[in-house]
From TrEMBL, chain A:
Pfam families noted in UniProt: ABC_tran
Domain of life: Bacteria
Annotated ABC transporter domain residues: 6-231
GO molecular function, one term: ATP hydrolysis activity
Family annotation (InterPro entries): AAA+_ATPase (IPR003593), ABC_transporter-like_ATP-bd (IPR003439), ABC_transporter-like_CS (IPR017871), P-loop_NTPase (IPR027417)
Sorted UniProt keywords: ATP-binding, Nucleotide-binding, Transport
Keyword Nucleus: no
PROSITE patterns, per the entry: ABC_TRANSPORTER_1, ABC_TRANSPORTER_2
Cell membrane in keyword set: no
Protein name per UniProt: ATP-binding cassette domain-containing protein
Homology family: Belongs to the ABC transporter superfamily.
TrEMBL record, chain B:
Superkingdom, taxonomy of origin: Bacteria
Lineage: Bacteria, Bacillati, Actinomycetota, Actinomycetes, Streptosporangiales
Keyword set includes Transmembrane: yes
Transmembrane segments: 61-80, 101-122, 151-173, 180-198, 231-252
Protein name (database record): ABC transporter permease
Organism: Actinomadura soli
Key words of the record: Membrane, Transmembrane, Transmembrane helix
Amino acid sequence: MSAAGIVVAGLRKRYGAVLALDGMSFSVRPGVVTGFVGPNGAGKSTTMRVILGLDAVDEGTALINGKPYRGLRRPLNHVGSLLDAAALHPGRTGRAHLLWLARSQGLAARRVDHVIELVGLASVARRRAGGYSLGMRQRLGIAAALLGDPSVVMLDEPFNGMDPDGIVWMRGFLRSLAAQGRAVLVSSHLMSEMQDTAGHLVVAGRGRAIADAAVADLIAAASGDRVAVRTPAVPHARSVLTYAGATVASTRENDGITVSGLPADRIVTLLGRSGVPFSEVSAHRATLEDAYLELTREAVEFRAVTPTEVSR
Amino acid sequence: MTAALHAEWTKLRTVAGPLWLLLGAIAATVALSAATASVVTCGSAGCGGDTARLSLIGVQLGQAPVAVLAVLVIGGEYGTGMIRTTLTATPRRVTALTAKAVTLTGVVVAAGTVAVLGSLLAGRLILPARGFTDAHGHPALSLADGPTLRAAAGSILYLALIALLSLGVATILRDSATGIGVVLGLLYLFPVLAQVIGDPHWQRLVQRAGPGAGLAVQATTGVRGLPIGPWAGLGVTAGWAAAALVAAALFLHNRDA
């Protein structure tokens, strides 16, 4: 097993009666953006704090390039992180915030100006951070994460508060960090962002990783072998395909059905031979959102409660 | 450690608050000292009194902005969540706290020196006009005088110890407002408490036990009659500061950030 990147193994942590982490294990490899997703309370933020040595665990280990965070000398040169973009003194300028961080690692002020350029904050760097929009604070946080040119980058919800331009920039930026050979862990609740950005996905639920797979594999698994068919003659098509051994399900549109158990070309042949008109036969492709919802259905902690539960 | 110190110094000098609080501490100290010196009188018959202590009375007011600054040094970071960034940059938490303590001590000693010398100078200039003259047994205040030097240096040390006590309390409480309340309460309630206690034994005990006991170091005359001696008093304040810092280090080290 390679030690590069982040390796989290069997993290367990209890806060009073709440089991925040229950055997959380996964790894983040260099050269790929790993998305870290899951419902509220799944343990994403706790896991990130544990990786950074901020929270202690009851059991398990979290290693960065083979070492625990607290054992790293000048840690920002190994791991750059952004947990909370709002965690700034509002009266300090963006540049001064980066400057004290640079000083804490023995880095030159030159690095500060470099990362300011990198995230596109040069025009506001000498203004007080209290006046920054959330999107600007996110960029400042990214700049802070990159100060030490680290091989591991970990960002908690970096898309939060970003305008559409910022989101496009962030996606490309994250991919470029991975392309430079860095291990990148990004938590997000925006599945669509992960689909465009992450190559690998860790899905957290109830304090553990309930999926840890390449994004392409997750989508393929959620898509199954289903085929979407659009036809004005739904009952006729249904009987023809069921007779041929397929399972047919209705869709929300009344001229569509979803067929499983038969490949698309076979469906075209069967419908054509039986004279059933159809306007579309296509492989059903799940979105990452579908895959995610399927995986987390069991693990969602905060479901809507029924009135009886409330009144109890 | 050097890097952590450099970082803390950069933090202090890149926001306006600390400078204003230090200037406030100097202004409050000198102003109260000068004002007090201006209202006392020594008649032709001569008078008792401790002119060094009188001239340094402003320290009792100047300690408040010092305490506020020290609480904010870490309480402000808990308020914004920046403490996590600090501890991510310096994962050795005792090192992080030590860096804060050293930087804070440095700036408080610098400001305290200005405040104390300013107060003594004000006393030296104002008191003779109020009748505190050589003829009445009050030579002009001078640092060449041993007890006066002790009062001056001791007052600076006292301010530094109050800063460290406040830093420790704020680290334990993790909140600026509560921290300021607790520290100011400790500094100003003990003397009030001592006043309202009827029993002389308990009164002396309270006067000796509070963190403000260190102000005894300002005494230059009648030392024997004080509830606690000059250095012993400063020792009590040092004990408070040390206890607060040790507890703070333990909490910081063992708690989740």
